[in-house]
Amino acid sequence: MKEQRFNGYEKFYGYKRGCLICGNDKECNDREVWAKDEYFKALKCTDCGLVTLDPSLDQDGLNQYYNDYIGNRFKQKQKFDDRKIQYRIDKIFIENYINKGKVLDVGCNGGFFLNTLSENFEKFGIEIDPKAVDYANKEFNVNVIEGEIGKDDFEENSFDLIIFRGVIEHLIDPKLALDRSYQLLKPGGLIYFCATPNLDSFCAEIYREKWNLFHPIEHINIFSVRTLHRLMGVKRFLLVEERYDYLNTPYENQNNDYKKLTDDINLKNSGRWYEVEKSPPFWGNMMSVIYKKRI
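^ that's the sequence the OP posted. Answer follows.
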């Protein structure tokens, strides 16, 4: 049975495309099916390892899907409360490296993470959901505009920090966003990715389409640190630090998570994969990575 949330989006299926990193032709044989559901296939490039939905929704479809995304967040109280705790963890990590200056949060939703950051920052955001933009500007002391990075009017070389929190995997053209980020950052400025699915995680490899971060329609590109850095440009950015939060997060439940993981592996090995549901939270699923614009 097809998921109800996908109904009506068939008309928004985009065109086929090659690997964003390698530029492989859409008909090439250098990508293999990594995971799939009834609507979408995720293809993995055998050269660089990037996983991409192909095809995905086009931008009109994504705009419709994300309309009032903030309203859906408010309806999921437990997830919303957990996310607020994780905001503080992510804040501490980045503020070990920078705690003042001009910051841009890309895909900032209602400005919740921006609001968590130090008041020493001059805070800007960009977001495609108009209701989230309205909420951010009314509730918090931030400057959020409606739109997409790469189609913005920000001044080049003006930001000290650019944040992609749970965003880069949602973009049809992340290269456009990263190229524009390079233009907007000051020399020595930082890009911070957090709440970002990590393809190199143990659970991603074991569970594939049952990985709890395999979200067809939403997660269009699934990165590792290596593929993300290649798309950004290793000659343009320096990797500063990477980490993989699980312990001491609101998502950690070691006894339950380890038990489920062990039970699921046993089911898989005994040919009963059909009994397995979504993967548990686990170490390595999410990555937080800081890059520095080379001077």
